Amino acid sequence: MPREVVLVNRAPVLTLWASVVAERLGYDHEAALSLGKALAGLNAQAKGRRLGIYKPPERVEGLPPKKARRGEEFWVDLLGRPIPATQTARGVRAVEGDRPVEPAGVERYLQGKFGEAFDSVRRAMEELARAFSPKELAGRAFSLYEHFRPGIPEGVRGWGAKGELDLDRIRGLSDKS
After folding, report:
1. Paired strand residues for 75
2. What is the Cα–Cα distance from 86 to 73, expressed in whole angstroms?
3. Closest among 110, 108, 94, 80 to 16, alpha carbons compared
4. Sequence spans of domains, the chain
5. Phi, then psi, of 87 in degrees rounded to 5
6. Torsion angle in degrees (nearest 10) through CA of 118, 121, 122, 124
């Protein structure tokens, strides 16, 4: 049987995985999509700063730490990273800037990036998430991602580069739980 591989960059992989994990932790589908997209964005910003693609925000000595922005009400811990969030009339949403991340756009983004493989990738990730209790998954989710994320070149050359996402590798991790 041939390997099932998808050529994709890391951002949509992390977005989808974080969404699947958030659902396993009890968030509804829409909240999970919102949280997953925000997490991938925060990770991309951090990596961009490390690589010198983005400049870190300027800090002024002696000033107190930054307060929550307008719209931020609480933080959700996902894959070991705090995600700013708010409660809207439609449920929990991550906050980017001062606006809630709407799930419909995230769903379209993921379907566009994964194309016909979207359902297969999602099923493989859901199977992996179900292999662990929610508590265990919460502690291991980022480490699991590091084991299956697409391989890309190091440094700036890898920024936005596509790599192979091996669905058999994802499925194999659920066998090792």
Report:
1. 84
2. 5
3. 110
4. 5-57+67-175
5. -100, 115
6. 160
Instruction: Tell me if 149 sits within 8 A of 13, measured CB to CB.
Output: yes
Distance CA 87, CA 108 (A): 23
Question: CA 97 to CA 171: how far, in whole Å?
Answer: 36
Residue 80, SS3 per DSSP: coil
Strand partners, 165: 6
Q: What gap in Å lies between CA 15 and CA 159, rounded to an integer?
A: 16
Residue 134 · residue 25 · CB < 8 Å: yes
Per-residue pLDDT of the chain (177 residues; tens, 9 = 90+): 567 899 999 899 999 999 999 999 999 999 999 999 999 988 766 554 554 555 655 655 654 444 445 555 899 999 999 999 999 999 999 998 889 999 999 999 999 999 999 999 999 999 999 999 999 999 999 999 999 999 875 765 555 678 999 999 999 998 765
Quote the pTM value. Answer: 0.83
Q: Are 46 and 66 in contact (CB under 8 A)?
A: no
